[in-house]
Design a protein that fits this description.
It contains 7 helices and 14 strands. By secondary structure, it is of the alpha+beta class.
């Protein structure tokens, strides 16, 4: 028995409509998968009002850590023969997939001098200003600050978390906040060592800082509301400095051997190319510098 013309048209309409719905659902699923894989800030914070310490929650997720070869080559060509001497291996910012399996919190700002004094009773900084980042601290000083936070605020910490320095992977994940460009505002550098308007939006660096640190939080934050991850002061991380792995990694914690600790982010004395999201450097853990400070994290207890 043949269908009537209007019945046929109705059936074809239903089929086409159903196909469109399926395509829209598939598109939504793909978009959700992308959000899950790259992480999306929940805007959740943890605050210790007594010392005005505000932490931003970073979700679990995956990201490409390091820089594309063409971005890294700009740095390599710029420093020329010093490259191997400085870094010890050919491709220091080797691009690789990293998964952060558990949420963590990171300081909305670099640790300030007033916060450091409140907890440690002294100010080692050279550029004295209460709301400037603390600097001239060693790796051990930064770790002691974290331990004092744990002792003093143990009863108010989120369950299963402790204060510590971020790992290098946590630092870059929080810095990028879902971006894959040289800078965490979704832009790239316009110059290697000159005035860079794109960097000026988010950082104090050698062309706008007058070789001094500045009050935290004066530049634009990244997508997750975190400030000054480019420039101002270099930031100490937990990791021993070493070469990146050749394959994907889950919650990496740096090299197994070595002496120097990783520093990230560039400083107010550094050129534009040295303030990228992927830029790595390292310091003797017993040394200190007027351009090196730190940012605390709340990390899962293992």
């Amino acid at each position: 028995m043949c269908n009537k013309p209007n019945q046929t048209r109705k059936r074809n309409f239903v089929i086409k409509f159903g196909v469109k719905i399926i395509k829209y659902v598939q598109l939504i699923i793909c978009l959700l998968a992308l959000v899950v894989s790259t992480g999306c800030s929940s805007n959740e914070t943890f605050v210790i009002k007594e010392i005005n310490l505000e932490m931003v929650k970073c979700p679990s997720g995956s990201f490409m850590m390091g820089s594309p070869l063409e971005e890294y080559t700009l740095l390599k060509n710029m420093i020329g023969n010093s490259h191997k001497k400085w870094y010890g291996f050919e491709y220091e910012e080797k691009l690789h997939l990293v998964t952060i399996s558990k949420p963590f919190y990171i300081g909305k700002y670099e640790v300030t001098q007033s916060q450091y004094v409140a907890l440690m009773g002294k100010n080692p900084s050279k550029f004295i200003c209460a709301n400037n980042p603390v600097e001239s601290v060693t790796y051990d000083d930064a770790k002691n600050f974290c331990e004092n936070l744990n002792l003093k605020y143990l009863n108010v910490l989120p369950q299963g978390y402790k204060f510590d320095l971020p790992t290098e992977a946590q630092w870059e994940y929080a810095c990028r906040a879902g971006t894959n460009t040289a800078l965490n505002n979704g832009k790239n550098l316009t110059t290697s060592d000159g005035v860079c308007p794109n960097l000026d939006e988010v950082a104090w660096y050698d062309k706008n800082a007058s070789a001094t640190t500045h009050i935290v939080g004066q530049k634009k934050p990244n997508n997750w509301g975190i400030y000054d991850m480019h420039g101002n002061v270099w930031e100490l991380c937990q990791d021993l400095y070493g070469e990146y792995p050749n394959e994907k990694a889950k919650d990496p914690k740096g090299a197994n051997t070595g002496t120097d600790r990783v520093t990230r982010g560039g400083g107010c004395n550094f050129i534009a190319i040295g303030c990228r999201s992927a830029l790595r450097y390292h310091n003797d853990p017993k040394s200190y510098d007027q351009f090196v400070g730190f940012r605390v994290a709340l990390v899962p207890i293992e």
